User: What shape does this take?
Amino acid sequence: MRKIIMGAALVLTTAVLTGCGSDGSPATSDKPAASVQPKAKAESGNGSGEVKHEVTLEVLGTGTTSVYYNLDTNKMEQVQLPWKKTSTITLTTDAEKKAGLGVSVVPGSVKGPDGMLHPAPCVITVDGKKVADNQDGKSDKMCEFKVK
Assistant: This one.
């Protein structure tokens, strides 16, 4: 439970810093997948220069667990696994396009094959490409990514 609370606090801090002018560097991500940036879908004909990405957060496993996520909203929910949430993220300003918007999911614990509680596996995909995961829950980390 302490890991969930610490992870949620880290996500909340990341969300606050992202909204308040973070320098855009990934928060504690050491995963090489975080450097992969899917191609953006630019809106044509509206002159706004908006860039849209379809982002999907997933928490895998069976049973129920709590999930904290930062996508189009920040929310903590009790969910039935497997769980998935998809949203379209629209980048409208040059700052958002350069620094990116942070998306993340902090999975709760699930009972592993050894009978012990472990973080549930999580995955983030952007425009159909996997950009972050927690190695099937083995890394004891949340999944996070900067969408640019």
